[in-house]
Amino acid sequence: MTQAPDMRRIIHVDMDAFYASVEQRDNPALRGRPVAVGGDRQRGVVAAASYEARRFGVRSAMPSVTARRKCPDLIFVPPRFDVYRAVSAQIHRIFARYTLLIQPLSLDEAYLDVTRPLLVRGSATRIAHEIRAAIREETGLTASAGVSYNKFLAKLASDYRKPDGLHVITPGQGADFVADLGVEQFHGIGPATAARMHALGIHTGRDLRARDLTYLTRHFGKVASFYHGVARGIDHRPVEPDRPRKSLGTERTFERDLYEWADMAGPVSEMCQRVWHGCERRDITGRTVTLKVKYNDFRQIVRACTLMEAVASAEELHAHARGLLRGCIPPERGIRLLGVTLSTLVPRAQAGARQLALALE
Hints:
This protein has about 350 residues and is an alpha+beta fold.
Protein backbone atom coordinates (compact mmCIF):
# COMPACT_ATOMS: atom_id res chain seq x y z
CA MET A 1 0.00 0.00 0.00
CA THR A 2 1.70 3.20 -1.17
CA GLN A 3 0.94 6.38 0.75
CA ALA A 4 2.13 9.80 1.79
CA PRO A 5 4.89 9.76 4.44
CA ASP A 6 2.63 11.19 7.15
CA MET A 7 -0.26 8.77 6.55
CA ARG A 8 -0.83 5.98 9.02
CA ARG A 9 -0.75 2.28 8.19
CA ILE A 10 -3.33 0.31 10.14
CA ILE A 11 -4.03 -3.42 10.20
CA HIS A 12 -7.20 -4.90 11.66
CA VAL A 13 -6.85 -8.61 12.45
CA ASP A 14 -10.00 -10.63 13.13
CA MET A 15 -9.87 -14.34 13.94
CA ASP A 16 -12.30 -16.48 11.96
CA ALA A 17 -15.15 -17.87 14.12
CA PHE A 18 -12.63 -17.86 16.95
CA TYR A 19 -14.29 -19.84 19.77
CA ALA A 20 -15.81 -22.38 17.39
CA SER A 21 -12.55 -22.72 15.43
CA VAL A 22 -10.62 -23.45 18.64
CA GLU A 23 -13.12 -26.20 19.47
CA GLN A 24 -12.84 -27.68 15.98
CA ARG A 25 -9.05 -27.52 16.17
CA ASP A 26 -8.97 -29.34 19.51
CA ASN A 27 -11.61 -31.93 18.61
CA PRO A 28 -11.17 -33.37 15.09
CA ALA A 29 -14.66 -34.91 15.26
CA LEU A 30 -16.12 -31.39 15.07
CA ARG A 31 -14.28 -30.35 11.92
CA GLY A 32 -16.51 -29.66 8.96
CA ARG A 33 -19.63 -29.85 11.14
CA PRO A 34 -21.99 -27.10 12.34
CA VAL A 35 -20.80 -26.11 15.82
CA ALA A 36 -22.15 -23.58 18.30
CA VAL A 37 -20.27 -22.57 21.43
CA GLY A 38 -22.81 -21.95 24.16
CA GLY A 39 -25.51 -23.59 26.22
CA ASP A 40 -27.91 -26.09 24.63
CA ARG A 41 -30.79 -25.31 26.92
CA GLN A 42 -34.09 -23.52 26.83
CA ARG A 43 -32.56 -20.13 27.64
CA GLY A 44 -29.06 -20.70 26.34
CA VAL A 45 -27.42 -18.28 23.94
CA VAL A 46 -24.96 -18.92 21.11
CA ALA A 47 -21.60 -17.33 21.98
CA ALA A 48 -20.04 -18.25 18.61
CA ALA A 49 -20.90 -20.30 15.55
CA SER A 50 -18.70 -22.12 13.06
CA TYR A 51 -18.96 -21.19 9.40
CA GLU A 52 -20.74 -24.49 8.77
CA ALA A 53 -23.43 -23.36 11.24
CA ARG A 54 -23.56 -19.85 9.84
CA ARG A 55 -24.67 -21.22 6.49
CA PHE A 56 -27.92 -22.18 8.23
CA GLY A 57 -28.34 -18.67 9.65
CA VAL A 58 -26.94 -19.42 13.12
CA ARG A 59 -25.31 -16.32 14.62
CA SER A 60 -23.73 -15.26 17.90
CA ALA A 61 -26.15 -13.90 20.52
CA MET A 62 -28.97 -16.00 19.00
CA PRO A 63 -31.10 -17.97 21.48
CA SER A 64 -30.10 -21.63 21.45
CA VAL A 65 -33.64 -22.79 20.69
CA THR A 66 -33.70 -20.58 17.59
CA ALA A 67 -30.30 -21.86 16.49
CA ARG A 68 -31.44 -25.46 16.92
CA ARG A 69 -34.55 -24.74 14.87
CA LYS A 70 -32.45 -23.31 12.06
CA CYS A 71 -29.94 -26.14 12.16
CA PRO A 72 -31.27 -29.41 13.67
CA ASP A 73 -27.82 -31.03 13.40
CA LEU A 74 -26.13 -28.23 15.33
CA ILE A 75 -23.56 -29.44 17.85
CA PHE A 76 -23.40 -27.40 21.05
CA VAL A 77 -20.08 -27.17 22.88
CA PRO A 78 -19.69 -25.51 26.30
CA PRO A 79 -17.32 -22.52 26.23
CA ARG A 80 -13.74 -22.84 27.54
CA PHE A 81 -12.79 -19.24 28.15
CA ASP A 82 -9.48 -20.08 29.81
CA VAL A 83 -8.42 -21.81 26.59
CA TYR A 84 -9.62 -18.91 24.41
CA ARG A 85 -7.73 -16.42 26.58
CA ALA A 86 -4.55 -18.49 26.34
CA VAL A 87 -4.80 -18.68 22.52
CA SER A 88 -5.55 -14.94 22.37
CA ALA A 89 -2.40 -14.22 24.40
CA GLN A 90 -0.43 -16.39 21.96
CA ILE A 91 -1.79 -14.37 19.03
CA HIS A 92 -0.99 -11.06 20.73
CA ARG A 93 2.60 -12.18 21.20
CA ILE A 94 2.75 -12.54 17.41
CA PHE A 95 1.40 -8.99 17.01
CA ALA A 96 4.02 -7.69 19.43
CA ARG A 97 6.84 -8.82 17.12
CA TYR A 98 5.79 -6.10 14.69
CA THR A 99 4.47 -3.20 16.77
CA LEU A 100 3.83 -2.00 20.31
CA LEU A 101 0.75 -0.07 19.14
CA ILE A 102 -1.87 -2.80 19.60
CA GLN A 103 -5.47 -2.04 20.54
CA PRO A 104 -7.42 -5.19 21.46
CA LEU A 105 -11.16 -5.03 20.82
CA SER A 106 -11.86 -8.49 22.22
CA LEU A 107 -10.10 -11.84 22.53
CA ASP A 108 -10.31 -12.37 18.79
CA GLU A 109 -9.65 -9.01 17.13
CA ALA A 110 -7.31 -6.04 17.37
CA TYR A 111 -6.03 -2.96 15.58
CA LEU A 112 -2.30 -2.64 14.90
CA ASP A 113 -0.56 0.59 13.92
CA VAL A 114 2.46 -0.42 11.80
CA THR A 115 3.32 3.04 10.50
CA ARG A 116 6.72 2.58 12.18
CA PRO A 117 6.98 -1.18 12.63
CA LEU A 118 9.51 -2.99 14.81
CA LEU A 119 10.26 -5.31 11.90
CA VAL A 120 10.43 -3.43 8.61
CA ARG A 121 8.87 -5.40 5.77
CA GLY A 122 8.38 -2.71 3.16
CA SER A 123 4.60 -2.44 3.46
CA ALA A 124 1.73 -2.96 5.86
CA THR A 125 0.35 -5.57 3.46
CA ARG A 126 3.52 -7.65 3.78
CA ILE A 127 3.31 -7.44 7.57
CA ALA A 128 -0.34 -8.55 7.48
CA HIS A 129 0.64 -11.55 5.32
CA GLU A 130 3.35 -12.53 7.80
CA ILE A 131 1.06 -12.16 10.81
CA ARG A 132 -1.65 -14.33 9.26
CA ALA A 133 0.93 -16.98 8.29
CA ALA A 134 2.40 -17.01 11.80
CA ILE A 135 -1.05 -17.35 13.38
CA ARG A 136 -1.84 -20.32 11.14
CA GLU A 137 1.52 -22.01 11.79
CA GLU A 138 1.64 -21.43 15.55
CA THR A 139 -2.02 -21.85 16.53
CA GLY A 140 -3.55 -23.90 13.71
CA LEU A 141 -6.20 -21.20 13.25
CA THR A 142 -7.01 -18.76 10.46
CA ALA A 143 -7.36 -15.00 10.65
CA SER A 144 -8.66 -12.35 8.28
CA ALA A 145 -6.92 -8.99 8.00
CA GLY A 146 -7.73 -5.57 6.62
CA VAL A 147 -5.08 -3.01 5.75
CA SER A 148 -5.77 0.68 5.27
CA TYR A 149 -4.86 4.21 6.32
CA ASN A 150 -7.36 4.40 9.19
CA LYS A 151 -9.15 2.18 11.69
CA PHE A 152 -12.61 2.43 10.15
CA LEU A 153 -11.49 1.26 6.73
CA ALA A 154 -9.14 -1.40 8.10
CA LYS A 155 -12.04 -3.05 9.93
CA LEU A 156 -14.27 -2.88 6.86
CA ALA A 157 -11.44 -4.43 4.85
CA SER A 158 -11.01 -7.38 7.24
CA ASP A 159 -14.71 -8.20 6.89
CA TYR A 160 -14.55 -7.97 3.10
CA ARG A 161 -12.60 -11.22 2.48
CA LYS A 162 -13.71 -13.36 5.42
CA PRO A 163 -12.89 -16.06 6.22
CA ASP A 164 -9.12 -16.49 5.90
CA GLY A 165 -8.70 -13.44 3.69
CA LEU A 166 -6.73 -10.23 3.30
CA HIS A 167 -7.97 -7.01 1.73
CA VAL A 168 -6.30 -3.64 1.25
CA ILE A 169 -8.05 -0.28 0.89
CA THR A 170 -5.64 2.37 -0.38
CA PRO A 171 -6.01 6.13 0.18
CA GLY A 172 -7.30 6.51 -3.35
CA GLN A 173 -10.00 3.87 -2.82
CA GLY A 174 -11.38 4.80 0.61
CA ALA A 175 -14.23 7.16 -0.27
CA ASP A 176 -15.42 5.03 -3.20
CA PHE A 177 -15.28 1.82 -1.14
CA VAL A 178 -17.52 3.35 1.52
CA ALA A 179 -19.96 4.89 -0.98
CA ASP A 180 -21.54 1.61 -2.08
CA LEU A 181 -21.85 0.02 1.36
CA GLY A 182 -25.11 -0.06 3.28
CA VAL A 183 -24.92 2.04 6.44
CA GLU A 184 -25.76 -1.06 8.50
CA GLN A 185 -22.33 -2.40 7.47
CA PHE A 186 -20.54 0.55 9.06
CA HIS A 187 -18.72 -0.27 12.28
CA GLY A 188 -20.22 2.11 14.85
CA ILE A 189 -23.72 2.18 13.33
CA GLY A 190 -25.96 -0.30 15.12
CA PRO A 191 -29.40 -1.59 14.09
CA ALA A 192 -31.31 1.21 15.82
CA THR A 193 -29.22 3.97 14.24
CA ALA A 194 -29.34 2.27 10.84
CA ALA A 195 -33.14 2.18 11.08
CA ARG A 196 -33.20 5.92 11.88
CA MET A 197 -30.98 6.59 8.88
CA HIS A 198 -33.19 4.51 6.61
CA ALA A 199 -36.19 6.54 7.78
CA LEU A 200 -34.28 9.66 6.66
CA GLY A 201 -33.55 8.14 3.25
CA ILE A 202 -29.93 7.33 4.13
CA HIS A 203 -29.23 3.79 2.95
CA THR A 204 -25.65 3.83 1.68
CA GLY A 205 -22.38 5.61 2.32
CA ARG A 206 -23.11 7.76 -0.71
CA ASP A 207 -26.44 8.83 0.83
CA LEU A 208 -24.69 9.64 4.09
CA ARG A 209 -22.02 11.67 2.30
CA ALA A 210 -24.73 13.76 0.63
CA ARG A 211 -25.88 15.10 4.03
CA ASP A 212 -23.91 17.99 5.45
CA LEU A 213 -22.63 18.15 9.02
CA THR A 214 -25.38 20.51 10.16
CA TYR A 215 -28.07 18.10 9.00
CA LEU A 216 -26.38 15.11 10.62
CA THR A 217 -25.83 16.97 13.89
CA ARG A 218 -29.50 17.89 14.03
CA HIS A 219 -30.49 14.22 13.79
CA PHE A 220 -27.59 12.39 15.48
CA GLY A 221 -25.95 14.85 17.88
CA LYS A 222 -22.27 14.63 18.81
CA VAL A 223 -21.58 11.44 16.86
CA ALA A 224 -22.51 13.23 13.62
CA SER A 225 -18.92 14.34 13.01
CA PHE A 226 -17.81 10.70 13.02
CA TYR A 227 -20.51 9.76 10.48
CA HIS A 228 -19.63 12.79 8.37
CA GLY A 229 -15.98 11.75 8.28
CA VAL A 230 -16.28 8.01 7.64
CA ALA A 231 -18.74 8.60 4.79
CA ARG A 232 -15.76 10.28 3.12
CA GLY A 233 -13.23 7.64 4.14
CA ILE A 234 -11.87 9.85 6.95
CA ASP A 235 -11.20 8.59 10.47
CA HIS A 236 -8.60 10.30 12.66
CA ARG A 237 -8.93 7.99 15.69
CA PRO A 238 -5.53 6.67 16.79
CA VAL A 239 -4.77 3.09 17.73
CA GLU A 240 -4.90 3.20 21.53
CA PRO A 241 -2.77 0.50 23.17
CA ASP A 242 -3.43 -0.60 26.74
CA ARG A 243 -6.68 1.26 27.10
CA PRO A 244 -7.68 1.05 30.76
CA ARG A 245 -10.45 -1.44 31.44
CA LYS A 246 -13.56 0.33 32.73
CA SER A 247 -15.31 -2.64 34.31
CA LEU A 248 -15.19 -6.37 34.92
CA GLY A 249 -18.35 -8.42 35.16
CA THR A 250 -20.30 -11.55 34.38
CA GLU A 251 -23.94 -12.56 34.07
CA ARG A 252 -26.04 -15.70 33.90
CA THR A 253 -29.32 -16.56 32.21
CA PHE A 254 -31.39 -19.16 34.07
CA GLU A 255 -33.30 -22.08 32.57
CA ARG A 256 -36.31 -21.29 34.76
CA ASP A 257 -37.57 -18.06 36.28
CA LEU A 258 -36.34 -17.34 39.81
CA TYR A 259 -38.58 -15.98 42.55
CA GLU A 260 -36.91 -17.03 45.80
CA TRP A 261 -33.84 -15.65 47.57
CA ALA A 262 -32.47 -19.17 48.09
CA ASP A 263 -32.39 -19.76 44.32
CA MET A 264 -30.56 -16.47 43.63
CA ALA A 265 -28.00 -16.34 46.43
CA GLY A 266 -25.87 -19.21 45.10
CA PRO A 267 -25.53 -17.91 41.53
CA VAL A 268 -24.71 -14.39 42.77
CA SER A 269 -21.99 -15.83 45.02
CA GLU A 270 -20.52 -17.78 42.07
CA MET A 271 -20.55 -14.68 39.86
CA CYS A 272 -18.77 -12.66 42.54
CA GLN A 273 -16.09 -15.35 42.76
CA ARG A 274 -15.62 -15.24 38.98
CA VAL A 275 -15.39 -11.45 38.90
CA TRP A 276 -12.91 -11.41 41.76
CA HIS A 277 -10.82 -14.14 40.10
CA GLY A 278 -10.65 -11.89 37.03
CA CYS A 279 -9.58 -8.97 39.24
CA GLU A 280 -6.81 -11.06 40.80
CA ARG A 281 -5.54 -12.13 37.40
CA ARG A 282 -5.33 -8.49 36.31
CA ASP A 283 -4.22 -7.20 39.74
CA ILE A 284 -7.10 -4.70 39.89
CA THR A 285 -10.10 -3.96 42.08
CA GLY A 286 -12.88 -1.37 42.05
CA ARG A 287 -15.21 0.86 44.03
CA THR A 288 -18.55 0.47 42.21
CA VAL A 289 -20.56 -2.74 42.53
CA THR A 290 -23.46 -3.16 40.09
CA LEU A 291 -26.22 -5.75 40.03
CA LYS A 292 -28.15 -6.33 36.81
CA VAL A 293 -31.60 -7.93 36.91
CA LYS A 294 -33.60 -8.96 33.85
CA TYR A 295 -37.20 -10.11 34.33
CA ASN A 296 -39.13 -12.67 32.32
CA ASP A 297 -40.79 -9.89 30.31
CA PHE A 298 -37.24 -8.74 29.33
CA ARG A 299 -37.53 -5.54 31.35
CA GLN A 300 -34.19 -4.79 32.95
CA ILE A 301 -33.10 -2.87 36.05
CA VAL A 302 -29.66 -1.99 37.39
CA ARG A 303 -28.76 -1.35 41.03
CA ALA A 304 -25.33 -0.02 42.04
CA CYS A 305 -23.36 1.28 45.00
CA THR A 306 -20.09 3.25 44.92
CA LEU A 307 -17.86 2.75 47.96
CA MET A 308 -15.44 5.09 49.69
CA GLU A 309 -12.69 2.46 49.42
CA ALA A 310 -12.06 -0.22 46.82
CA VAL A 311 -13.33 -3.77 47.35
CA ALA A 312 -10.66 -5.83 49.13
CA SER A 313 -11.89 -9.42 48.70
CA ALA A 314 -14.40 -11.74 47.01
CA GLU A 315 -16.29 -11.89 50.30
CA GLU A 316 -16.64 -8.11 50.40
CA LEU A 317 -17.77 -8.01 46.76
CA HIS A 318 -20.34 -10.70 47.55
CA ALA A 319 -21.61 -8.79 50.58
CA HIS A 320 -22.30 -5.67 48.53
CA ALA A 321 -23.88 -7.63 45.66
CA ARG A 322 -26.05 -9.52 48.14
CA GLY A 323 -27.19 -6.23 49.65
CA LEU A 324 -28.19 -4.93 46.23
CA LEU A 325 -30.06 -8.17 45.51
CA ARG A 326 -32.01 -7.97 48.78
CA GLY A 327 -33.44 -4.67 47.57
CA CYS A 328 -35.03 -6.56 44.67
CA ILE A 329 -36.67 -9.26 46.82
CA PRO A 330 -39.43 -10.24 46.51
CA PRO A 331 -39.31 -9.74 42.74
CA GLU A 332 -42.32 -8.22 41.02
CA ARG A 333 -42.05 -10.99 38.41
CA GLY A 334 -39.81 -13.94 37.59
CA ILE A 335 -36.11 -13.21 37.12
CA ARG A 336 -34.45 -14.77 34.07
CA LEU A 337 -30.98 -13.18 34.31
CA LEU A 338 -28.65 -11.82 36.98
CA GLY A 339 -25.30 -10.09 36.53
CA VAL A 340 -22.57 -8.67 38.75
CA THR A 341 -20.06 -6.01 37.64
CA LEU A 342 -17.22 -4.22 39.39
CA SER A 343 -16.20 -0.81 38.00
CA THR A 344 -14.38 2.41 38.93
CA LEU A 345 -11.31 0.20 38.73
CA VAL A 346 -7.94 0.86 40.38
CA PRO A 347 -4.71 -1.17 40.76
CA ARG A 348 -4.93 -3.45 43.80
CA ALA A 349 -1.59 -2.17 45.10
CA GLN A 350 -2.95 1.39 45.10
CA ALA A 351 -6.09 0.30 46.93
CA GLY A 352 -4.05 -1.70 49.43
CA ALA A 353 -1.83 1.29 50.19
CA ARG A 354 -4.88 3.46 50.93
CA GLN A 355 -6.37 0.79 53.21
CA LEU A 356 -3.05 0.39 55.07
CA ALA A 357 -2.82 4.15 55.58
CA LEU A 358 -6.32 4.22 57.03
CA ALA A 359 -5.47 1.35 59.39
CA LEU A 360 -2.43 3.26 60.71
CA GLU A 361 -4.24 6.54 61.30
